[in-house]
Amino acid sequence: MNADPxxxxxxxxxxxxxxxxxxxxxxxxxxxxxxxxxxxxNGAGKSTTIRMFCGLIPPSAGSALVAxxxxxxxxxxxxxxxxxxxxxxxxxxDLTVGENLQFFGGIYRVPQQQMAERTAFAMKMxxxxxxxxxxxxxxxxxxxxxxxxGCAILHxxxxxxxxxxxxxxxxxxxxxxxDLIHQLAGDGVTVLVSTHYMDEAEYxxxxxxxxxxxxxxxxTPGELRGxxxxxxxxxxxxxxxxxxxxxxxxxxxxxxxAIFGDKLHVVLAPGDLTVESLPTFLAGRGIAARxxxxxxxxxxxxxxxxxxxQREETPA
Length: 316
Hints:
The protein has helices spanning 46-53, 75-80, 97-107, 112-126, 141-152, 171-186, 221-225, 241-248, 278-283, 299-313, and strands at residues 6-17, 20-31, 35-39, 61-66, 69-70, 82-85, 159-163, 190-195, 206-211, 214-219, 232-239, 254-260, 263-268, 288-294. By secondary structure, the chain is α/β, with parallel strands linked by helices.
């Protein structure tokens, strides 16, 4: 076992499927007890990276250590020292809460004399005390996810990988799930959690932004917001959004423009086009702009800008 102080270390980690490179030379270190967010759009390479960390698929190049074990040469030891929760709900709906816990306790080789204590802890953590006989299929999505997390930590692993754990879960249940993650981190568990929800990045100690298999940036939420966008960020209420986006493409002074919900976010370099003149500019092109205001950049704004910069520097 390696004595590296970091719980997860990747150097040049790469995965190719034929001619397609899903993960492209990732360098990443995660400290013990740290909550690292793995943020990026669907298809960015998050799940493939996590599967390599779990020893489920071998890397094509580079290396990774998890809990001190080499993911390629010591994959069995890696799996004994991690908890893993996939983005697809993995419990058995036709079994009860208690039966699922017993089943996963057996898979993780939890000693029989410790099983009652471990399952009781998992049920308490999931908020399912007294519901051991309930069929899992009858539980709401948030309860299922918390139970799945309880199953993943029955053997008390030092490292936990959560792949899109809150996908499709209602906001209140997502917040409660994150409370559980921080409880585990407070006990020294290292957590790598992937998500495409940018608001969840605020719950992480640090964030790794990934796009097209490449790491775009790593840092705390504050550090990443401090990257700056190179100009003023303007939030524009206009319609139609698609036409406005097209009208701003290539316009001098427009660094970046992207749709955010039902509005447009535009980064303006110092120059002739300003937050005050932007609505008039669009109106001259037949686009109704109702309001424009300067706003502070969110992590999503920073991500969009950093991804755009990387794609300009390293086109596919």
